[in-house]
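To close the section, here is one more complete example, presented without commentary so you can practise reading it yourself. The ligand is S-adenosylmethionine.
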Amino acid sequence: GLRSRAAFKLLQLDEKFGLLKRGQRIVDLGAAPGGWTQVAVDKSKSDQGGTGQVVGLDLLEMEPVPGATTFQMDFTTDEAPARLKSLLNGPADIVMSDMAANTTGHTQTDHLRIMGLAEMAYQFATEVLAPGGHFICKLFQGGAERELLARMKQDFASVRHAKPAASRQDSSETYLVAMGFRGATPPQA
Ligand code: SAM
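Output:
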């Protein structure tokens, strides 16, 4: 069975946008307890083994998901993106982040922390995604900052907000789904 209710959110996003395919290389940020990881393995790996790879991390310890490689680390450390990159055996087709920082109760602080995680996940995605790849990210309070959204619209063919039915109606959680990565932009001169 699926380990988390969150798994249904990814299934519903996939139903709506057609994101997950056999043979994909997928990065799962904020993976514990592993519902999205299970869905990613199920959709990307074939029974005959072969291609497809799922790599994930979380602050918390998690039970291993067969077919995926997960480890316990804070994504905001320098070490975490480097470790993920070293585990990937090629460019990623999907980078997905369901990361949510613990709330402090201080609205502004919470908002900054959540946006910080989204921006770091996005930066990482632009470094590892293959052209045509997708980025999926949890957001709160109505969506991404205008600046981040503008950057995404340049970097991806389409950028959409979506709230899957499995996401509680009374929560301000939404997801950003950016599809069709245009490829890494060279650093500005
Ligand atoms: N997608 C998961 C599933 O289907 O089982 C549920 C993810 S849960 C909503 C959010 C996760 O983000 C938590 O497990 C939390 O520990 C993790 N998280 C929050 N901040 C993080 C960070 N800085 N680095 C890594 N994981 C983080």
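Once you have examined the tokens, check your reading against these statements. The CA atoms of residues 32 and 62 lie 6 Å apart. Residues 3-4, 6-7, 30-36, 57-60, 74-76, 98-101 surround S-adenosylmethionine (CB under 6 Å).
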